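Residues determine shape. We examine one folded chain.
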Amino acid sequence: MKQFTCILIVLAGIAGFKPLHEPIRQPPANALATLYPNDVGIEQDPDVLYTEKFNDGMPNILARYTDVLNREGMSLDSVDVPANGCVALKMTNLGGKNDGGHLFRQFDPGFDSVLYIRYYVKYPSDSKGYIHHESVWIGGYDPATRYPHPRAGTCALGDQRISIAYEPVGSRDDMDTYLYWGDMRAGARGKCYGNDLVNGSPQSKKISWDTWMCVELMIRLNHPATASNGELQVWQDGAAVGHWGPGFPRGKWLADSWINNKTGQPFEGFRWRTNEKLTLNYIWIEFYDDTTPKGASHHIKFSNLVIAKRYIGPIKS
């Protein structure tokens, strides 16, 4: 019997949307995926904006992306998949030769509305200790680019860059956010390498090694650009991991990490951007493993990515 793990990120940016005063811990009702068992036909739903099922052959898959790294290390798998009829993309690296690979897609125009992104990922246990960045990133650049331009270490850039991911962090099998945004906090030596928010959350999750995980994220872009009324919500396998917005949850900043604590101060909300032209205009399917020993090889698998206007949820079998 196969086990699945799902991560959900919701992206929302609606002018006039009234902010909440406490986090939502239950997934929205009427998940879109419940209407399409095994995701069959989900791409035809009017609320779906983009799908990547990896099921129409490698040439067609690669043609959809504006930047491809290490296509020789990519292959398709129709056996080890999250549900019947699915296809997975396997990305493989070779130590001493490359650091993995990626698929990057620019959306023109970008999204400045309610969005949900859901995907499946499988982390093999033999990669433990070698993971650097391995997940699907979503964000925006202004001006838009056809390739990734994260500018790691650089703070602020609220008029030029948003980067949002939920991925393995540290050495304790934790999953956490990795965020670049307008008001991000600096870490060691005043550098910015991504803010993590899940710390201390009672809903925090671990990596499910050798198991398909489902991830979904919610992002509400701030309107207007001067306001800190943006939000982020994360689900893993359909279970709430955290929800951050103006006034919730409570905690404190410790350098570049938000520490959740009921006795702390309310979270200030996100000013994701300081420029209204900065929208969510890319996805980056990333496998970055730069410490694999020479001659050794690791891999990661992705499957069933969906971007929609409403909550998607895990695959219904």
Summary: The domain at 4-308 is CATH 2.60.120.200 (Jelly Rolls). The chain has one domain: 4-308.
